[in-house]
Amino acid sequence: MTSVNVDLNGKIPNNVGLSEDAKLQRALEGWLPRYLDWWNEMGPSDFADKPVFLRTAVSVDPGGWAHYDYVRMPDYRWGIFLDPGNGPATIKAGDDAGKPAWLDVPGEHRNALRRIIVTQADTEPASVEQQRLLGHIAPSLYDLRNLFQVNVEEGRHLWAMVYLLHKFFGRDGRDEADELLLRRSGNADKPRILGAFNQPCDHWLSFFAFTMFTDRDGKYQLAALSESGFDPLARTTQFMLTEEAHHLFVGETGMDRIIKRSAELQKLDPNGDVRAQGGIDFDLIQRTINYWYTYSLDLFGGEVSSNASTFFATGLKGRYREEQYSDHLALEGSYRLPVIEGGRMVENDVPLRTAMNEVLRDAYVADCERALRKWNKTLEASGSPTRLTLPSRRFHRHQGIYADHHFDPQGNLISAEQYAANQARWVLVPEDNTYLLSIMKPVYEPGKFANWIAPPAKGIEGRPMDFEYVKVHA
Ligand SMILES: [Fe+2]
Ligand SMILES: [Fe+2]
Questions:
Q1: 244 alpha carbon – ligand 2 mean position (Å)
Q2: How far away, in angstroms, is 222 Cα from ligand 1 center?
Q3: Which of the ligands is closest to the CA of residue 216?
Q4: How deeply is 3 buried, as exposed, middle or buried, from its count of CB atoms within 10 A (0-12, 13-18, 19+)?
């Protein structure tokens, strides 16, 4: 059982009783310098000596788990925190729902759990690598600080997963923890595990879309793992979700602020030409939504999946907020799925358990639709006639049953030629990056914002907008 006591004074802050487990403590303290080497090589480029107004997890008390202060990023206190939970945990889903949760890894689930943890863990350093150059073109100190906040917390999430690997998976786990520092986002020889985490994130439009859509996938994956029968994993991911909320906030409000500013520039220009005013036009915003939303949809896995069925049946994963369901077995019922047969689209009913990836994807899609409604409210309030949409979940897919076919953004089956002829209108293309990089120049003056984005509604942790969130001149 995990200790609730927080140790903030050791080399590795934690509430997992690290000082009582000398072997584990030694192993993790041995991993620490290698992690720092990785951070210094692949974390935010430059800025290592600049004080950043950062939030650090220092407790698991929901009322006050974070401490805010200026920190230089390499000095950040990456800690290991598990949600204390309330009382003895039970298995939440599947055949053994209601039985006591596992405090250790059951032998028969060892390989599956290790794979699940490694796959989640790999996304954390991957995103830091994808974002490493963005500080050089930040639209404000407020945004620069948010970027770094996201980066250090993804680093902490890596720690959270590496703790599980070291503590519960012996030699294999230690090897996996080492491998996590060796793969590189976008590297042809040793890429990160999942597709979206190898896509370049060259500019802030992609950064906001990434934190909106790809971090949001992370939220749903973590939520499914927080329903795991493996109690240490459930508690670890539960606490990660508290930090993840801020990443999603950064993405959703970042997109909203760009949309708001583009609407202002649209109004300002005699021809309604946002680009003529140095802003980001709505077609480009739509292409960015289409690109990152669909890469993020891929992360949920196959629509019909025997793995998903097994993970649910054995209690390794649950659904999003499993407690909202009364039936935790999911043996009855089916899921209606549009599939391609003989070159046309038909609907098939598949057993519910095999469609668990799709059930989780549904929760994600609904959440994204909510954000789109909000952004369209912003457009409406600005008097803009433009409206943004989410493309069909069949469009631009690289995983699952739709990946071998081509669809338009409305989800209609089209030919490869039709797709190729329209691709540049539908998803981000290299010319988009060229344009965005041409307008994204760093703004490091407190309280000032780049021309292409509106200021946020308020500052961080009660600080004013012109607060020096990063002391870039220190
Ligand atoms: Fe994360
Ligand atoms: Fe995140």
A1: 5
A2: 9
A3: 2
A4: middle
* pLDDT tens track for 100-132: 999 999 999 999 999 999 999 999 999 999 999
Q: Which two tokens stand for residue 65?
A: 């788990």
Contacts of 441 (CB under 8 A, 6+ apart): 137, 450
Tell me, in angstroms, the distance from the centre of ligand 1 to residue 244's CA: 6
| Ligand with the closest atom to the CA of 240 | 1
Beta bridge partners of 56: 67
Query: Is the separation of the CB atoms in 446 and 144 below 8 Å?
Result: no
Secondary structure in 3-state letters for 338-406: EEEECCEEEEEEEEHHHHHHHHHHHHHHHHHHHHHHHHHHHHHHCCCCCCCCCCCCCCCCCCCCCCCCE
The C-alpha atoms of residue 453 and residue 441 are separated, in whole angstroms, by 12
Domain extent listing, the chain: 18-439
Q: Domain 18-439 belongs to what architecture?
A: Orthogonal Bundle (1.10)
| DSSP reduced 3-state for 53 | strand
How much distance in Å is there from the Cα of 320 to the middle of ligand 1?
A: 17
- Ligand that comes closest to the CA of residue 237: 1
> pTM of the entire structure?
0.97
Low-confidence spans in the chain with pLDDT less than 50? 1-3
pLDDT score recorded for residue 61: 85
Residue 140 Cα to ligand 1 midpoint, Å, equals 23
Which pair of structure tokens corresponds to residue 166? 């070291």
Return the pLDDT at 4: 60
Tell me which residue of 321, 159, 184, 153 sits closest to 248, measured CA to CA: 153
3-state secondary structure of 228: coil
The Å distance, Cα 78 to ligand 2 centre, comes to 15
Q: How far is the CA of 154 from the centre of ligand 2 (A)?
A: 6
- The pLDDT assigned to 5 comes to 80
Under 8 Å between Cβ of 114 and 176: yes
How far does the centroid of ligand 2 lie from the alpha carbon of residue 298, in Å? 17
279, β-bridge pairs: none
- Residue 236: what pLDDT? 96
Ligand 2 ion: residues within 5 Å (CB): 215, 244, 247
What are phi and psi for residue 401, nearest 5 degrees? -70, -15
Which ligand is the nearest neighbour of the Cα of 120? Answer: 1
Nearest by Cα to 375 from 206, 194, 252, 282:
252
Report the separation in Å between the CA atom of 322 and the middle of ligand 1, taken as the mean of its atom positions: 21
- Quote the CA–CA distance of 133 and 440 in Å, as a whole number: 12
Report the run of H or E that residue 112 belongs to, with start and end.
helix 110-130
Going 206 to 161 to 186 to 224, the CA torsion angle's sign is negative
